[in-house]
Automatic annotation (TrEMBL):
Pfam families xref list: HTH_IclR, ROK
Organism: Glycomyces albidus
Species classification: Bacteria, Bacillati, Actinomycetota, Actinomycetes, Glycomycetales
Name of this chain's protein: ROK family protein
Domain of life according to the entry: Bacteria
GO MF annotation, one: DNA strand exchange activity
Domain HTH iclR-type span(s) in chain numbering: 37-77
Length: 428
């Protein structure tokens, strides 16, 4: 598995005003802890001697770093192998038995919760119907807290320490976890993280929130078919349409966290001018092709499945509409490709089910509209993570911070002060 976190070398320094800024000892050590962890993760299992050879750090430094990572329950010794001179070498691997990271997505028609260990293995994967469109923010938070508490209790029964809880929301969320606008949910200026912490009785781990497209991109970069790609756009494909942007290997949120609102770009298709979301969003698909007069929030997935069934049966009206919607999506993607030049544009959410009909039309439109030949090298691909991607990305963002050197401390090892050692929000 390729690692999404940037693999900086040991002791990298920041730059300020064109000159290197000297890092203090704690910065260097944190960077080196993350560097060693990423190397072990990439190798799956390796010895201290292997780490010294591959990282360029001296053996004494590697031994000290490994000892700290084992103390923090991040690495563990996992067997031995006979070395070149017949002396057994102790192998190291990521400790998957102690920590858990929780990610939850709240959307118009469902909630999804994913729990992962330090290696990214799924410990839980739950999906529940939720009529977010017709629930008040308070009711949604209560449902969200209830689902999270169940997961926390399960992890606690297994002896796991919670690293953090992150929430994915289809809306504009600032760097303090306040939902400025989530029109599909009817939320505005809503302090999601504050209310959720209150509902969960002020837990001793961090509670954070981010846009669902951003977190979907995080999951795709680490676990998707294009894992490790440096430049990628992830499209949510839910009732609303947002984009998560991976640029030069990093998630980009913009100055205040609102980057990626691709659904608001204006396009012209078949003589009509409008927003990408109005022409190519899943709501547009349902408005045109659903046979129901009214669609409850919890019925969206069933309606999409019905449209897929009709498309497979070759219903002309459905095939024509999906082709037009795919072309509209391709027109919006072309604007984003001209601006950002990604290697891949990943279709997530409900676009996954609709992809056999909309993706070919989108690819054709992308090739016709981009200024660079061959669409600038960009490919339209379909997510293999489906609706789970934002929740998985929420949990994964916490792992990425640990890979970067923000290390947890097991409860009880160094006293209760360290229960709240994890940072208050994602690295910006």
């Amino acid at each position: 598995m390729r690692i999404a976190a940037k693999s900086a070398g040991p002791g990298d320094a920041d730059e300020e005003s064109g000159r290197a800024k000297r890092a203090d000892f704690t910065d260097v050590r944190a960077n080196n802890l993350g560097f060693v962890l990423r190397q072990v993760r990439a190798e799956v299992r390796c010895s201290r001697a292997d780490l010294a050879a591959k990282t360029g750090l001296n053996k004494a430094t590697v031994s000290s770093l490994v000892a700290e990572l084992i103390e923090r329950r991040v690495l563990r010794e996992s067997g031995s192998v006979i070395g070149n001179i017949g002396r057994p070498a102790v192998l190291l691997s990521v400790d998957t038995g102690y920590y858990a990271s929780l990610g939850v997505e709240v959307n118009v028609d469902y909630m999804t919760l994913v729990a992962v260990d330090l290696a990214g293995n799924r410990l839980l994967s739950w999906r529940r119907a939720h009529d977010g469109a017709n629930s008040t923010p308070g009711k949604s938070v209560s449902a969200l807290a209830g689902l999270a508490k169940r997961a926390v209790d399960r992890m606690d029964s297994e002896g796991r320490q919670i690293l953090g809880l992150a929430v994915a929301v289809p809306g504009m969320i600032d760097n303090d976890g306040v939902v400025q606008r989530a029109p599909m949910l009817g939320w505005s200026e809503f302090d999601l993280t504050g209310r959720l912490r209150q509902a969960m009785r002020d837990p001793k781990y961090a509670v954070t929130a981010d846009n669902d497209a951003n977190l979907g991109a995080v999951a795709e970069q680490r676990f998707g078919s294009w894992a490790g790609v440096s430049n990628m756009i992830y499209l949510t494909g839910e009732i609303g349409l947002g984009a998560g942007l991976i640029i030069d290997g990093e998630l980009r949120r913009g100055a205040t966290g609102f980057a990626g609102e691709i659904g608001n770009l204006l396009i012209e298709v078949d003589g009509r001018v409008g927003r990408v979301e109005d022409f190519a969003g899943v709501r547009a698909v349902l408005n045109e092709l659903s046979e129901s007069d009214e669609i409850a929030g919890t019925e969206v997935e069933a309606e999409v499945e019905d449209i897929v069934t009709r498309a497979r049966a070759g219903e002309p009206r459905v095939l024509e509409a999906l082709d037009r919607i795919g072309r509209s999506l391709g027109a919006g993607i072309a604007l984003a490709v001209d601006l950002l030049n990604p290697e891949a544009v990943v279709l997530g959410g409900h676009y996954q089910a609709l992809s056999p009909w909309i993706a070919p039309a989108a690819e054709t439109e992308l090739a016709a509209r981009t200024h660079a030949s061959g669409a600038g090298g960009a490919e339209i691909v379909v997510s293999a993570l489906g609706h789970e991607a934002p929740a998985l990305g929420a949990a994964t963002g916490i792992l990425n911070d640990i890979d970067a050197g923000l290390m947890p401390t097991p409860i009880g090892r160094l006293g209760p002060l360290f229960r709240n050692c994890y940072p208050a929000r994602f690295r910006r």
